[in-house]
Every structure is written in structure tokens, then in C-alpha cells.
Amino acid sequence: MNRVVCIDASAIVPMLTAEKFTASATSRWKTWMEDDSRIIAPTLLGYEVTSAIYQKAFRAIMNPEDCQAALHLFVEMDIEYIDLPELHLKASILAKQFNRPNTYDAHYLAVADHFSCPLWTADERLFNTVKGKFQWIKWIEEID
What number is the average pLDDT over the span 1-9? Predict the structure, then answer.
């Protein structure tokens, strides 16, 4: 394995559904797979991806069969889920540090910080909030 990479739901969902960042996210994933990268995320990722895809069916953006197919692809992705109790404490500290109203995004930040690895995101709000202040944050369209 060449490197460790943390990824959030905003960078996964475009790989599974047609979205603005589909090409960038898919290309980045392909590179990581070719490099034999270790892809990690907090266990929260599964809940967030499932919810985001379900919302597309609920809002009739995608048909239910395509959503189920996307979820099948998701569960087959080579992602290592990180569940360390200390991450909850770190997420709380990071959420406060960045003045966030909840700790969801901060859990991804905590994983990246714990493993000293980049966190790749397509969440513009998160990226813009922490860029320049959190050394591990990376934009999905960034060239590395």
C-alpha cells in the first residue's frame, strides 16, 4: 500500500450517481485503486451514503432500482471503516474549533488527523470552512 486516504460521503456519492463531481471522483478512485491506496472513513460513511442515495429515490431524482444498484456498488467498495472511541472526542473538539453546528463532518476530519492522511471531499462548505486551517483537507478536483 502506497498511501492512506480518508474520503467522505460527498466524494463517494458522485461515483455512484450522476452528479457534478462524478468524473473527478471516479478518476480519483481509479488512481487510488491503481496505487493500492488504503481508503479509510469513519463508520458514519455508510449511513451518510445510504441516506444520500435513498434521498434521490425519495425525491424521484433516481428510480428505486438504480438507487439499489448504487448501494450494491457502494457496499462492494474497498473501504476500511474506522471506529475508534477517541475519534468522537476529537470530532467534538474539531467541530468546536471550526464552529460547526454538528460533528458529522468533524468525524472525517478526526480520522484524517488521527492517521495523518488527506481527507478528500466534494463538500464545498466543509472545504471552504477548514482549508488553510486543517492541513489534511483536499478538494476532490485538486491535482495531487
Answer: 89
101 vs 1: CA distance, rounded Å: 36
SS (HEC) of 3-44: CEEEECHHHHHHHHCCCCCHHHHHHHHHHHHHCCCEEEEECH
Sign of the dihedral defined by the CA atoms of residues 16, 49, 136, 113, in that order:
negative
- The mean per-residue pLDDT over the stretch 24-37 comes to 94
**Please, are residues 116 and 136 in contact by the beta-carbon 8 Å criterion?**
yes
Tell me, what amino acid is at 47?
Y
Q: What is the mean pLDDT of residues 107-136?
A: 95
Per-residue pLDDT band at 144 (split at 50, 70, 90)? low
Residue pair 35/3 in contact by the 8 Å Cβ criterion: yes
Question: Which domains can be identified in the chain, with CATH numbers?
Answer: 4-139 (3.40.50.1010)
DSSP string, 30-88: HHHHHTT-EEEEETHHHHHHHHHHHHHHHTTSS-HHHHHHHHHHHHHS--EEE--HHHH
